[in-house]
Amino acid sequence: MYADQEKVDVTEVSSEIDEGANVKIIEKAEDVAVQILSTEDNPELPTWTFRTAFLGTGLSAFGAVLATIYTFKPQNATVSQLFCLIIAYVLGTLMAAVIPSHGYWRYLNPGPFNIKEHTAIVIMASTASTVAVAMEIIAALNLFYDIRLNGAVAIFQIFASQMIGYGIAGVLRSLLVYPTYAFYPTYISVVNLLQSLHFGGALNYKRRKYFWIVFAAIFCWEWIPQYPFPLLTAISVVCLVDNGRSDFIRNLFGAGSSNEGIGLLSFGTSWTLITQGSPLVWPLQTRTCCPLLGMAIGYVVLTVCYYRNVFHGRDLVWMSTSLFASNGSTYDQSAILTPDNTLDPAKLDEVGLPQFTTTYAISQMCYNFSLGAAIVHVLVWNWRDLKRAFGQIKLMKGSDDIDDPHYQEMRKYKEVPQWWYMTLFVISLAVGIGCSYTTGEALLPWWSIILFTVISFFLAICLGFIMATTGFSLSIKYAIQILAAFVHPGKPVAVMYVNLYGNSTAFQTLYMLQDLKLGQYIKLPPRATFAAQLAGSIIGSIFNYTMMISIVDNNREVLKDPVGTRIWSGWIIQSYNSSSVAMGALGKELFAYGKPYYMLAFAIFIGLAFPIPFYLIHRYARPDSWIARMAKYINTPIIALYVGYLPYSVNGQWWSCVVIGFAAQWWARKRRPAWFKKYNYLTSAALDGGSQVIMFILSFAVFGASGNAVDFPYWWGNPENLSVDRCALTPS
């Protein structure tokens, strides 16, 4: 389906000076990578230089620290790859300008800062900036089970879980890296910016000037909604009129504070939040239309289910990832567990079963719908691609018959042998198994580690197809933990630890595949990409762990609170703990057929049927009929995902994403195709970069990343006794 689901109008520029070229219609969405990105390459450019090592190491440490801080924030912010790219460019060009290049100095400064050095630095830094699931699991063990792994064991565990995914990524290169259909739409802006910064020409000078103007503008703006005027992060007319009187209004329309509401008709002006939806990057029907349809259904489903007391959650808070007792208090998990963290049935009889909030239960069910739908969706819409690609997978070398122009340019470089990846996979798996046994009793037995690693391999294929062709990442952690609950009944720690191999491995595979594609677009030698990813993972593992320990030790009680504060929140870590207790200790009591949450488990199987009606309509209806065209654009995994996407964190940005997405991917793409081709992705890069730079400065200057927060004085735009958007406060 993804191969031909959208036609993109762009203008093919005949030369860098002449902007009046003819408009060319791209027949497939992935051809954007061919029309927008240059295949230009200079094999003589050095990759591993002093600048690469120095800046790569420094930015990797910096990105890992910042990403770990964001993990414990109420906002779902991340360190953008574009942010790493911009900082690397500024520092790299500065080093090239100030370090002498004659004599022995040439080893430190071999010439102008080039695109291959730059890309290697970006891969290192972005790899380190991707917070490992292992770090989150280790934090949950520390917070909720008082299991504190030895520092070296924890770091090796984080690194090993990432490298298992890297080994799998190497096997899947022929399927999810080399071909044109695997174009990773979110990376188009990254490559577009790299080429604009380094390839000469009058047009590119104009584009660089445009970039820095947009960068400076968002840098000057972003601090206003983030610090003195937070109401601008979620402007809700309904909340302003209500002014904190109604809980119903807060639940449905609120969106500015952590775990406040689902944000109907709430518009944000903070690009740090808006960029989570990447509205300038993703194709219209997959990133705007399908999510909008899913969220529209979600507004109705979440609200009706809560007020109709579905899952008996009416007396609990509206949004939270924690577990609750029947009286609405936080569930005391230690009261039902033995000292070795297994279920004590006698204690359970005294305490009673825990409950999810209704919105969190619905969200988990929808995520499992999405996973089931994704498996069938890829099979029915991409069967031919799967057959062809699997036929091209070879154990010791790449594929010879792939006609992607970027891949063909890469064939001049030595490829990474498949046995390198397989060796890395085996060693990492052995290290992971060994780390699991370092606490005396196994956190997870060896056979379970192997079992869930195999499962994650097959899931990575389905998830990889969706990410490579649409940019979407689907969550599988709830499905994995439900499966683990039946494999390890009564073992909450084991069920939580399964995430390292059933969940983390799959997603680390996807992250590695993306970077391999970035290397292919830039023509970075494959072995340099391999080394950059290894280095970034090592540095990231060290700083992920050390920063996590500092935050957890200094903010333990706040991170356990179901709501959190404006500065810190443990909502991500709490979700792992809640699932481990509910699914691990109480899997049979809560998720077996006929039990309170059995639909969450069976949702995976129900989701398998979602894509079939739309595929049959597209297959057998008249091709020119409106119903056949509509069925082609209905992406059921994405719709199901977004039905349950809202009851987390803050939600003030999504309606802004819709408006910007239509403006860019419909109006600009169709009415201003030349501008769209040259400036759309560059605009995305500039906005991401400028907002990330100011967000980093604010984090350390006033948000408490350096130890002490400096609160802005309360006023109408920063209310004290109301939520950020002037809705009623969320009860804690």
Walk me through what this model shows.
The protein is an all-alpha fold. The chain has a domain at 223-355 and 603-672. Helices cover 61% and strands 1% of the residues. It contains 32 helices and 2 strands. It has helices spanning 32-36, 50-71, 81-98, 115-129, 133-145, 151-171, 173-176, 188-198, 202-226, 237-242, 247-253, 271-274, 284-307, 345-351, 358-381, 383-392, 405-410, 418-436, 446-470, 477-487, 492-497, 499-522, 526-554, 556-560, 571-585, 587-591, 598-607, 611-620, 626-633, 636-643, 654-671, 673-701; strands at residues 8-11, 23-26. The protein has a two-stranded antiparallel sheet with strand order 1-2. The longest helix has 29 residues, at 526-554. It is globular. The protein starts with 7 loop residues before the first strand and ends in a 31-residue tail after the last helix. This is OPT oligopeptide transporter. The chain crosses the membrane at residues 48-70, 82-100, 120-145, 152-176, 182-203, 210-227, 262-282, 289-309, 361-383, 419-440, 446-468, 530-552, 597-618, 680-705. One of its GO terms (molecular function) is oligopeptide transmembrane transporter activity.
Secondary-structure topology with pairs:
Layout: E1 8-11, E2 23-26, H1 32-36, H2 50-71, H3 81-98, H4 115-129, H5 133-145, H6 151-171, H7 173-176, H8 188-198, H9 202-226, H10 237-242, H11 247-253, H12 271-274, H13 284-307, H14 345-351, H15 358-381, H16 383-392, H17 405-410, H18 418-436, H19 446-470, H20 477-487, H21 492-497, H22 499-522, H23 526-554, H24 556-560, H25 571-585, H26 587-591, H27 598-607, H28 611-620, H29 626-633, H30 636-643, H31 654-671, H32 673-701
Antiparallel strand pairs: 1-2
Helix pairs in contact: 2-3, 2-4, 2-23, 3-4, 3-8, 3-32, 4-22, 4-23, 5-6, 5-23, 5-25, 6-18, 6-22, 6-23, 8-32, 9-32, 13-30, 13-31, 15-19, 15-27, 15-30, 19-22, 20-25, 22-23, 28-29, 31-32
